[in-house]
Amino acid sequence: MQRRNFLKVLATGSVIAIYPSMIDGTLHADDGTLFETYEKVQLVDEEGNPILASTLEKEKNYVFNYPHVATTCILLALPRATDTKVTLKDEDGTEYIWNGGVGKEKNIVAYSGICPHQLTHVNKSDTFISYLGTGKKTMACKQDNVIVCGSHLSAYDPQKGCKVIAGPAPQPLASVVLEHHEDDTLWAVAILGNDKFQQFFKAFKPELKEQFGGKRKAKKMLKNTTTTLALADYTKEVIQY
Ligand code: FES
Asked: Which of 7, 71, 211, 218 has the fewest Cβ atoms within 10 Å of its own Cβ atom?
């Protein structure tokens, strides 16, 4: 696992926090804890062929696991370019900046599929959290083009880094930092925001044991590639309110 915590030991022996923005010029956080790099993995289909950004169907829910085998994320090609450099706040009030979508049209985004309210998440049996595209109505808010968690009707705006626009969610969905390469391939490289992964592993221990054979196995980090599927092919039922 490649994981950096953005701390640097100075020649004097003191330790300072290095902002992600100082490392790659694109990501910003008040402290390094809101941005963590993991093993860089390529998004591939079930046969192992690279997912090409230009072939993603707009407004369709796709999913892939990252950075753990049990943490499922939502991938979207939105109908238009996202906003850029959106200031977000986690539940503690810490600000960070979401840089925007990738791909030729700057419309490709990925977010953690774990709702930070009470950890409703994308899963194989029934999924209550997903994107509702143009013209789709939701009980959560009047806006379309939103990710809605149907458990308590929180709505997130994926055009703006999944800022909360309705409901009890205390903070945005964490985002997956994607790289789009010249050959049109997509790679997951980091997580930005408060991801709630540890709370998720703790809260769903029995379910994870049943599905993966134990918490340790569920926590295993993805390496090299991650399979990307349409949400409808991943889960038995998508429930949207
Ligand atoms: S768990 Fe998602 S809104 Fe409550």
From this structure: 7
Helix, strand and coil in the chain, % to nearest 5:
15, 35, 50
Total domains, the chain? 1
What is the pTM for the complete model shown? 0.88
- Has residue 209 been placed in a domain? yes
What is the C-alpha to C-alpha distance for residues 151 and 121, in angstroms, rounded to an integer?
10
38 C-alpha to center of ligand 1: Å? Answer: 26
- Specify the amino acid at residue 74: I
Give nearest CA residue, ligand 1 atom 3. 152
CA of 65 to the centre of ligand 1 (A): 20
Instruction: Identify whether 16 is part of a domain.
Output: no
**pLDDT digits over 169-206, tens only?**
999 999 999 999 999 999 999 999 999 999 999 999 99
Residue 195 Cα to ligand 1 midpoint, Å, equals: 14
Which range of residues forms the domain containing residue 208? 34-238
Any ligand 1 atom below 6 A from CB of 167 = yes
Question: What are the backbone angles phi and psi of residue 101, rounded to the nearest 5°?
Answer: -75, 165
- Number of residues that make up the chain: 241
